[in-house]
Design goal:
The structure holds two protein chains of two kinds. Chain A is mostly helical. Chain A contains four helices and no strands. The chains are: A mainly alpha, B mainly alpha. At the A-B interface, helix 1, helix 3 and helix 4 of A face helix 1, helix 2, helix 3, helix 5 and helix 6 of B. Chain A: InterPro entries: Anti_sigma_zinc_sf (IPR041916), Znf_put (IPR027383).
């Protein structure tokens, strides 16, 4: 089973879903029994969600998709 | 011919997310649009080399990342790892006690969403040197795996992990500074042992 230090060290890889299934289960077992590490886990999981949500919101420039289609269309004609 | 028409339709669904990432890379809307157009043209022309059934989204992001790195004469290939200050582990987590609770929402998850504005998060990402900004974007915003990012950047997986770790800590420090500027933080509340 993972201890606090190992859990905190591997929290990032765990949140990235990059640990082996066995190792991830050890981290999960530790988190279930440790309020401090559980707090750190929830904090970082929420932070990830916030960053992802906020950085994804981006308004496209007017006509962006049309211009994109047009530039591919020009390339098709140019190739023929 | 049919396959290429399919390319346009299939690829178009990823245009908005490619644009958002291009904007964080170039930090300029006009350059970002150019970068996405160039990515689509390269993808269209190289479509013969694309293997049907593999991940089109990852393939497009790979083309875009490479185009950006080459076009903008990026330092990515010869990164200066020292250009980012060392930030202590769990930087933001250890400082949450200093946030003014009266200005924060009750629910932990909402709290985090309300704590920082969209612009602060975007600025924090954009403030990272490119070496760190690109892996953070590809992982935290776009959700690519270490392996996919390593292939896109043509660096070992260990390098991706180390850049992500340092980039994320630097971003947390930046977010903390923004919160401080907005008067959300009272540092006298921090336990000196922390």
């Amino acid at each position: 089973m993972a201890d606090c230090q190992e859990t905190l060290n591997e929290l990032e890889s765990y949140l990235d879903s990059e640990l082996s299934e066995g190792r991830a289960n050890e981290i999960i077992t530790h988190l279930k029994g440790c309020t401090d590490c559980q707090g750190a886990y929830e904090f970082h999981a929420d932070l990830r969600t916030a960053i992802k949500t906020k950085a994804k919101n981006e308004e496209l420039p007017d006509g962006f998709l049309d211009r994109l289609r047009d530039c591919l269309g020009d390339d098709v004609l140019g190739a023929e | 011919m049919g396959a290429r028409e399919d390319f346009t339709d299939d690829a178009m669904q990823y245009a908005p997310q490619l644009f958002a990432t291009a904007l964080r890379m170039t930090r300029n809307r006009s350059d970002a649009e150019d970068l996405v157009q160039e990515t689509f043209l390269k993808g269209w022309r190289a479509f013969d080399s694309y293997q049907q059934g593999t991940n089109l989204r990852a393939w497009l992001f790979r083309i875009m990342t490479n185009t950006f790195i080459n076009k903008y004469n990026s330092q990515q290939r010869r990164p200066q790892e020292t250009e980012l200050d060392e930030v202590e582990e769990l930087f933001l987590f250890r400082r949450m006690g200093a946030f003014d609770q009266s200005k924060m929402s009750q629910s932990a998850e909402d709290q985090m969403l309300e704590l920082f504005t969209d612009d602060e998060v975007k600025n924090a990402i954009e403030s990272l040197p490119e070496t760190f900004r690109i892996p953070v974007l590809l992982s935290d915003v776009e959700g690519f795996s270490y392996k996919e990012i390593a292939e896109m950047l043509e660096v070992p997986i260990g390098t991706v992990m180390s850049r992500l770790h340092r980039g994320r800590k630097a971003m947390q420090k930046m977010l903390y500074e923004y919160a401080k500027e907005r008067g959300l933080v009272d540092e006298s509340l921090l336990d000196p042992q922390d």
